[in-house]
């Protein structure tokens, strides 16, 4: 009751010939066959790739490399100490420059216009 017998298959074949014509059926069947071969080839290729990946994953255990310890960032106290040292250096250089300017006495305080009139 649920199967297709010979008479049903003959009727389906005749309907296909009437719908598509006798000339197009061989080309259609050939294209369908090529599509099925290509589909089968690609699915077997995917299965082989999956099997290869699984075999590779089983063969090579995952080794986690320990990461080197990064030096810790300087603490707030260390950065503050470095800033104070830099500030002290800048003060000494600015004081030395100010001392050099006053060593010349009044000639250092004079403008170039005043120096020309002397």
TrEMBL record:
The keyword Transmembrane belongs to this UniProt entry's keyword annotation: yes
Similarity comment: family membership: Belongs to the TatA/E family.
Transmembrane segments: 6-22
Cellular compartment(s): Cell membrane
Residue span of region Disordered: 83-118
Organism from which the protein derives: Sphaerisporangium album
Name this protein carries in UniProt: Sec-independent protein translocase protein TatA
Any Pfam family the entry gives: TatA_B_E
GO biological process, one term: protein transport by the Tat complex
Biased composition (Polar residues): 104-118
Keywords, comma-separated and alphabetical: Cell membrane, Membrane, Protein transport, Translocation, Transmembrane, Transmembrane helix, Transport
Matches recorded under InterPro entries: TatA/B/E (IPR003369), TatA/E (IPR006312)
HAMAP family, alphabetized: TatA_E (MF_00236)
Topology versus the membrane: Single-pass membrane protein
Domain of life: Bacteria
GO molecular function: protein transmembrane transporter activity
């Amino acid at each position: 009751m649920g199967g297709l017998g010979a008479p049903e298959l003959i009727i389906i074949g005749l309907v296909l010939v009437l719908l598509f014509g006798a000339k197009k059926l061989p080309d259609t069947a050939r294209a369908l066959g090529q599509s099925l071969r290509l589909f089968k080839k690609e699915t077997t290729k995917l299965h082989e790739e999956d099997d290869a990946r699984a075999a590779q994953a089983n063969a090579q255990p995952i080794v986690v490399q320990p990461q080197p310890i990064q030096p810790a960032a300087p603490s707030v106290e260390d950065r503050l100490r470095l800033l104070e040292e830099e500030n002290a250096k800048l003060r000494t250089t600015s004081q030395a420059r100010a001392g050099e300017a006053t060593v010349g006495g009044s000639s250092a305080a004079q403008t170039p216009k005043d120096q020309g009139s002397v």
